[in-house]
Amino acid sequence: MPDKKPSTKTAKEAITVKSSADLQKDIAAKQQDLLQAKRSHKAGELVNPRVLTKTRREIARLKTALRHNELNGEEK
Description:
Number of strands: 0
Radius of gyration: 15 Å
Shape: elongated
Number of helices: 3
Order of helices and strands: HHH
């Protein structure tokens, strides 16, 4: 039976570790990465197009963590 892949950081882990300001900075950085990857993909320079999907999912996880912090009023 194959071993499980190591899991990536989940939204719950991001909530306990980062403040809302840190999450917003991370979201902005990931959005810049996504924009750059899209440009590279259109130009045919992107080696691994799965980066696009991975980055979009990471942004969604960060936004989920940010929203959770807003709803619970957990400003660190």
